[in-house]
Design a protein that fits this description.
By secondary structure, the protein is an alpha+beta fold. The protein contains four helices and 13 strands. The strands form four sheets. It has a five-stranded antiparallel β-sheet. Strand 5 and strand 6 form a beta hairpin. It is globular.
């Protein structure tokens, strides 16, 4: 299900997402957005609307520090996220290992990918994508990286490409940016 794309550019993170809710061969176009801003953060999620709802409505992420952002996200941020997902009944355990979901998060001008095992990664390219349309979207982001296109236009093209080549991705597309 889905395509979530993000670009870090000029101290701002831009995230875009589609509207597909997929169950087997059925695709529902959802009105509730997979991308949103909470405090200093911009989020774009895949995996489960329930997970996204918990992150959006049941959790207040801690304010990021001025330094050591990667360490903060890998510890304090993820610890709070894990607690929110457990309390909300979303997190699961398999062989004593906790699992959550996948999402992009932008904060302090940087874009991170949080995977289902809660690892926090940052692409060296300044852009990333997650979801069923990830590969096509990454190709489109790569192809537009050396252009003068705005981040918003690049996100739009990546989402349109993912929709054209993946049945789990559907418009309309929504976009958010980290607060200035």
């Amino acid at each position: 299900m889905t395509a979530i794309v993000g670009i870090a550019s000029g101290g701002t993170v831009h995230i875009g997402g589609d509207s597909a809710g997929v169950s087997g061969y059925v695709v529902h176009t959802r009105a509730d957005s997979k991308v949103f801003v909470t405090g200093s953060y911009a989020f774009g999620f895949t995996t489960s609307f329930r997970m996204g709802q918990l992150i959006r409505w049941a959790w207040t992420p801690p304010e990021p520090p001025a330094t050591d952002l990667e360490r903060f996200l890998s510890t304090t941020f993820v610890d709070g996220l894990r607690e929110c997902l457990k309390t909300g009944g979303w997190a699961s355990k398999d062989n004593e290992r906790e699992c959550g979901g996948v999402f992009l998060v932008g904060v302090a001008g940087r874009l991170f990918n949080v995977d289902s095992d809660y690892q926090v990664g940052e692409s060296a390219h300044g852009y990333d994508a997650v979801g069923a349309g990830e590969e096509v979207a990454l190709g489109a982001l790569y192809a537009t990286a050396r252009t003068r296109m705005s981040p918003r236009k690049r996100l739009q093209l990546a989402l349109e490409a993912a929709e054209a080549f993946n049945g789990n991705v559907t418009a309309p597309f929504a976009y958010v940016s980290t607060p200035s």
